[in-house]
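question for whoever is on the cluster today: can someone run the full assembly for these? two chains, 900 residues total. i dont have access anymore since they changed the login thing
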Amino acid sequence: MVDPIELNDALERLNAFLAGDDLDGAIEYLRALHPADSAELLSELEPEDQAAIIERLQAAELAEVFEQLDEEDMADVAQHLDVEMLADVLDEMEPDMAADLLGELEPEHAAEVLEQMEEPEDVASLMTYEPDTAGGIMTSAPPSLRRFWTVAEALRFLKLHYAEEEDFFYLYVLDRHARLIGLVNLKALILADPEQTIEEIMDRQVISVHASADQEEVAQLLQRYDLVSLPVVDDEERLVGVVTIDDVIDVIEEEATEDIYKLAQMSPDSELYSPVPQSVRNRLPWLVVNLGTAFLASSVVALFEGTIAQAAVLAAFMPIVAGQGGNAGTQTMTIIVRSLALKEIEPRDTFWALWHEGRVGIINGISVGIMVALIAWFWQGNPYLGLVIGIAMLGNLIVAALAGVTVPMVLKLLRVDPALASSIFVTTFTDVGGFFLFLGLATYFLRFLR
Amino acid sequence: MVDPIELNDALERLNAFLAGDDLDGAIEYLRALHPADSAELLSELEPEDQAAIIERLQAAELAEVFEQLDEEDMADVAQHLDVEMLADVLDEMEPDMAADLLGELEPEHAAEVLEQMEEPEDVASLMTYEPDTAGGIMTSAPPSLRRFWTVAEALRFLKLHYAEEEDFFYLYVLDRHARLIGLVNLKALILADPEQTIEEIMDRQVISVHASADQEEVAQLLQRYDLVSLPVVDDEERLVGVVTIDDVIDVIEEEATEDIYKLAQMSPDSELYSPVPQSVRNRLPWLVVNLGTAFLASSVVALFEGTIAQAAVLAAFMPIVAGQGGNAGTQTMTIIVRSLALKEIEPRDTFWALWHEGRVGIINGISVGIMVALIAWFWQGNPYLGLVIGIAMLGNLIVAALAGVTVPMVLKLLRVDPALASSIFVTTFTDVGGFFLFLGLATYFLRFLR
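^ ran it for u. tokens below:
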């Protein structure tokens, strides 16, 4: 077993072989590793070393390597192969991975490669589905059985036709129209009496999903019913493929990453290794939108220019009230947005959430308000300044709680993704609220503050 | 198949049975559903309705229901059962779920229930592991084979002893000291010749994990090697259990939620439905820490009180520079923190990241700087104000890029969780940087701004 820390050591060893021009040694070393590890190492090599090794590997070995890489690394490595070799490799790969790899190539290149494949049918049909749907992430269906077969017949059928296939965990039972009517898990097949019929051992309560279903829905179904794979059907309920759990894990991780990026006010498609112009496109529009709300808050401050001219110290305290409101609002908004995503709360729970978060806001507001009041008092030697900032802080933390709940709930009701747009509205409320409360109170108490 | 939307309808139907005092109808209705759905519905009912239904279910039915609930719902439902019945239910449950349920009860109550169980051994031994480790999330090991058995013998053994067990997908091969030496997947067993030995069909490259390994490491291994379960071993390499993929999905979702909460500056243990005092404890300390840095930024503003007193308009523009820096810094920091979590980047890539993010910061800084300069110029009719705010904006977006990369990388090197502490440091840099650059430049150009 190679563990994550040893991967760096392994890379060093591999590079040592390559530095000594020992290509045979390097290949032998890679072959001894788990395919997931050799693929990882291969993707970390310099392009020329990658090319040298890849030229020497068999199609079946390359297929194993490709299946372990993510889509972009696949495309990088694939560019070292000519059309015939790539077609051979794709023939050996799982159809869904082969379709993903072809999807990364230029359309003409992909068409050329498909034409050279021995068995292009499965891959070509998988390529017709939208990427983020059940059809887009599924692979070809595992062996299917008929309900009137005996267990012995089913086993004979599997030995005859499926010895070379990838691992599978469930078998599906189809009727004469290829419609899905049941599921047999391998354990049931192993433990059954050879004379029993498939109908007797199959589970009729089979959960399936339509090929056009969103990948997020697929992930939720697999989680809800604790499945390791989910059959995908077409409009006529015919089995067209199966989504396996490893793809679903990728979906769950991808969706979490997207939510994190949206909450940080950037495009959900952001990627660390994007070219600079792409990174700018993923971020600049969000900064510009924020600029609009910043000027809104700024115009509130401008209303009180006369007050600030008379007590410039207010300018130093003003961002504290707005900033703490922003922090508290972000806390509330984040827990609401995440709980909406995990389906732990719905818009109809808004009143409960307002009551809960409102109380948290009041308690935090009183606590932070007292602290900030005391600090301001002792720093500037003016109890009235403490009073003004303390009360403004309490008020703004209540604004933060209300906005933190209401904004994502309203967005959800309007069918706008709450993760996408909540931050900007919540901080607008807390900026405007903070400046208005603090400078408004300060204007009222101005003669004590000068 | 019941889909997520229909669940609300199903709840209404169930409540209609209960409103008409038709308990038999309600139970019949629940029995016809998938256990995951009937468990979900049951957990949504009022406690008295729950109790009435639970009293009428068999231990085996209740076990199925419990296995579908999350830990807190399990404990809620379990309170309706007496010790004997609960013990019967636990005997029917998967050992890991039974251990989780017992872990939710008061220790004395759990001990009483354990004493009443027929087969408490597996559950009791699972309860000895730390919750967030491989041992804590594993369940009892599936059937294990010996390498010198024939396939026919193995099948006979499974039929004799494991007909009643939960589904399993892999079988493990142990040596005479119960050490893990290989893995057989069910497909290989089905397709093998009955006279072959287990040794001939087993896979020796079996990935395993120590019982004390962190659950995040377990999740990474299952993902990296595309496994549906991972064997867990003790100090002597003996098989003690197995972690299944459904538990790993929960871990992945939990870790993402924790990172989201940490980035939003609140306790990773935050929960929507925590009692108010707990919510306050999860958030107030973070607000207080932020208060410290807010006063630091505020003291920078205080340095320039003389400037602001002469040109109060600066107070209105000052938060825009700091705020945009905070937004841009959060974008960079978030992509670095998430990429560190997904192991797409390491601290040794810091220079690459600084170069990439620095260029993004300069381009965004020039763009936003020009926009803000023009708005300020036309709003206040003063080109110098535009010049000052534009240059300060560019400068602060560069500060944001540098801090957004450096802070999480340094925290990672110091073995502090970057998600936990990056936000506070990055916004400190952008607040201090923004105020200093803007007010400093404004002081220099003061005679043009009055």
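summary bc i know u wont read the tokens: Chain B touches chain A through 110 residues (CB under 8 Å). Chain B has three domains: 6-128, 144-254, 276-449.
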